[in-house]
Amino acid sequence: MDGYSRRVKSEPLALLGASCPTGCKNCGLRANSAFLSGSAAELDAIADFRQGTRVVEAGATIVPEHGTSSRLFTLYSGWAFRYKTLSDGRRQILNFLLPGDFIGLQDEFADGQTHGVEAATTCTLCVFPRDRLWQVLHSQPKLGYDLTWLAAREEKMVDDNLVTNGRRNAIERVAMLLMHLYRRAERVGMAHKGGIEFPFNQQHMADALGLSLVHTNKTLRRLRQLGLHSLEGGALCILNAAALESLGDYFERPLRPVPLI
Amino acid sequence: MDGYSRRVKSEPLALLGASCPTGCKNCGLRANSAFLSGSAAELDAIADFRQGTRVVEAGATIVPEHGTSSRLFTLYSGWAFRYKTLSDGRRQILNFLLPGDFIGLQDEFADGQTHGVEAATTCTLCVFPRDRLWQVLHSQPKLGYDLTWLAAREEKMVDDNLVTNGRRNAIERVAMLLMHLYRRAERVGMAHKGGIEFPFNQQHMADALGLSLVHTNKTLRRLRQLGLHSLEGGALCILNAAALESLGDYFERPLRPVPLI
DNA sequence: CGGAAATTTGAGATCACTCAATTGCGGTGG
DNA sequence: CCACCGCAATTGAGTGATCTCAAATTTCCG
Fold first, then answer.
1. The whole model's pTM is what?
2. List of chain A residues whose C-beta atoms are within 8 Å of the C-beta of residue B106
3. Helix %, strand %, coil % for chain B, to 5?
4. Distance CA B161, CA A7 (A)
5. Is the residue at A232 inside a domain?
6. Is residue A76 part of a domain?
7. Structural domain boundaries, residue A67
8. Which chain A residue has its CA at the smallest distance from B5's CA?
9. How many domains does chain A have?
10. What is the pLDDT of residues A24-67, one digit of tens each?
11. A interface mutation test: which of B163, B179, B213 has the most A CBs within 10 A?
């Protein structure tokens, strides 16, 4: 067992999305076909709800693990992740966050216990005041539906990670993680020439997979030597998707566009 | 690695809640202080949404793992659990369900992939037609807020299980599971004389904890011999809560009442 | 050219797994 | 009432995947 957190101050890496435009109607992210377009009324409600934007550096805390944040966020650009830490420092990464992911929802209903969110690259965030959430949902019920959708979608992501941590062996875990991250990034338009920006180090991967750093390293090497992927210079390329999918028992599925708030 | 599913037809055990009354206004479950009372308008909306009740036996499938259900449920009485199975049969229990838990939400937004729900005891369920969900949320935005709350709460439960599977060792896992299930059951009034109905066999526990059946058995024995709990005749008693909490690094927190739909 | 962090490698230790057999218990048929 | 069966719980023994420890190497930056 490993997972002892080692604080990492990784480098800001090239960003794919620039900063968020002033109005939600021109939201660069929403132009992506991975997201639902949303009615004018919804866009107005979201624009009105939005307090502003915020940029945080790689390695910065977006939501502290203990204590509540009075803000909610939508990740506009960059990579982040949610995590939890046991009292002796063992850390588990719960899931990774990509543009379009909503942040801070669970805290709204938290009873103390919670999780932290950390930026893995420089991140741009849309900021919303938590105390207006109910008011907004009340005036625009569709956003409540969308929010539930996003919450359910994130839960399914955690479900998958739980299966990985509970039932897959090391090589299956790594294969599954690589495919999962690649597919998600690709979906929001972050893939270029068959590769994606990959800002995570092996400690991150170990913490997400429930493996030790050393064993993660050795497993990664096996996959690399088999020619299934390449991971260098902060970029991940999938060289043999079929093999990785098969190893991880994790296959691509058609995905519907999801709401964006 | 174990987790190969072994089909279990466990015995129907004594139920705590009887069947659901005809109207939601007299809902026996809502009388419990663990749940918010809800306004008259909400209760009317829920009563109108509800299609009827359904009773399923222990071991029956409530939601099939593959394929969509056209119904949503609230568990009214009994124990159930959500699970996922890998293609070679390894099974992971994602979380356990108790009265008040909403079932089937994720499927609403599923893209194929999904999970199954199985009754562990005889279960009474309130049944809702999935295709009216949006209409109901539209007319009663508060229910959208509540549904998001329930989804976020369930996600936090899965988060905890993920930490357990990823970062705790065997004895910590078992200690944590026993305390978790006891506390949850106690909260909805299922504790009697310091014990709760415990319909799960060791295979269930192993599948929830990411351990093999044999190792789960041996770990359980260690805890029993330490005098921390007793588990016989389908009943779980916590004999040394402080020790179990400390072992599992899992402590009780004050919990707010949660919505009931 | 340092120096810190990340990656890599080797080696031995362990926890958890698999295999296999036994025990205990409730139900069933004779 | 007892032999028998099926299933869950136990136990023992050996194996193996993963962990821990420790050190070398590489990469990245100032």
1. 0.92
2. 152, 155-156, 159
3. 40, 20, 40
4. 24
5. no
6. yes
7. 13-140
8. A167
9. 1
10. 888 999 999 999 999 999 999 999 999 999 999 999 999 999 88
11. B163
